[in-house]
């Protein structure tokens, strides 16, 4: 059961004191709720953070949960803290493709920024975790009176558009193993850890390919000592080598984000075996 306590405001960070008890399957870590762990929230002015904090609530998202369907409205916006959200392009009821992955560096909001609109993509929780949630109407009102937030969103949407466009070329010209390495590194960056749950079928859904192809690619990465995979969990063993195995889209997407979002110098996933990017 997600926490439902009212959210008070704090000028320096979203509060952690008033959260309700977490469910038995979750580890309550106060730092998970710290707004500074979401990069977009971290860039807000203290007064803006204070005002938005009054309208946000923390929610736990379970892996596989659908947050928005293609063609439907989005009732809330989400600022992930430890959760990740995949945007999926759906060709038919069975076939889909992950076009971008949203984590603590961004937010899920694009369909509601300028008014109620149909979502062009499905939004699916990729890895479970905490997120801040804000009603769509309240968010639109905040964007209307906050030029700084509006500017941040414009840059962020440009990044999402660039990444989504790149995926079409990536899928056509890059092999399954290189694409899998790319998304594993991206996921590590978003969750800030080298280990995370990820089943083979989910990997196949991410890449828009057959499970058998992902199974072979996973086996090769294991044989080369780049990852461990057991019981639906991935552990990246050699970040630098995995980055060398990834297609160039990983580096390209990081450069785009760093440039457009003005990221401070931060280690990328391939910088040794330190934690992944700190965005
Ligand atoms: Zn690629």
Question: Could you characterize what this model shows?
Answer:
By secondary structure, the protein is an alpha+beta fold. The chain has nine helices and ten strands. The strands form three sheets. The chain has a four-stranded antiparallel β-sheet. A hairpin with a 5-residue loop joins strand 4 and strand 5. The protein is globular. Zinc ion is lined by residues 170, 174, 179, 182, 247, 249. The site of zinc ion has 6 residues, from helix 5.
Question: What's the structural blueprint in terms of helices and strands?
Answer:
Blueprint: H1 39-42, H2 46-53, E1 56-61, E2 66-68, E3 76-80, E4 84-90, E5 96-102, E6 122-127, E7 129-135, H3 136-145, H4 147-173, H5 176-191, E8 195-197, H6 200-207, H7 211-223, E9 227-230, E10 233-236, H8 239-245, H9 249-261
Antiparallel strand pairs: 1-7, 2-6, 3-7, 4-5, 4-6, 8-10, 9-10
Helix pairs in contact: 4-9, 5-7, 5-8, 6-7
Strand residue percentage:
15-25%
Order of adjacent strands in the largest pleated sheet: 2-6-4-5
The distinct ligands, each listed once, are:
zinc ion
Count of distinct strands: 10
Distance N to C terminus:
28 Å
| Multimeric organization | single chain
Order of helices and strands: HHEEEEEEEHHHEHHEEHH
Please tell me the overall pLDDT.
Answer: 80
Helical/strand content category: alpha+beta
Helix content: 25-40%
Taken from the alpha-carbon principal axes, the silhouette is: globular
What is the CATH first-level class name of the largest domain? Mainly Beta
Number of domains: 2
Q: Output the CATH topology of the largest domain.
A: Jelly Rolls
Q: Give unreliable regions as ranges.
A: 1-28, 264-268, 270-276
Taking the sheet with the most strands, its summary is: 4 strands, antiparallel
CATH architecture of the largest domain: Sandwich
Q: Specify Rg, calculated over alpha carbons.
A: 18 Å
Count of alpha/pi helices = 9
- CATH homology superfamily of the largest domain: Jelly Rolls
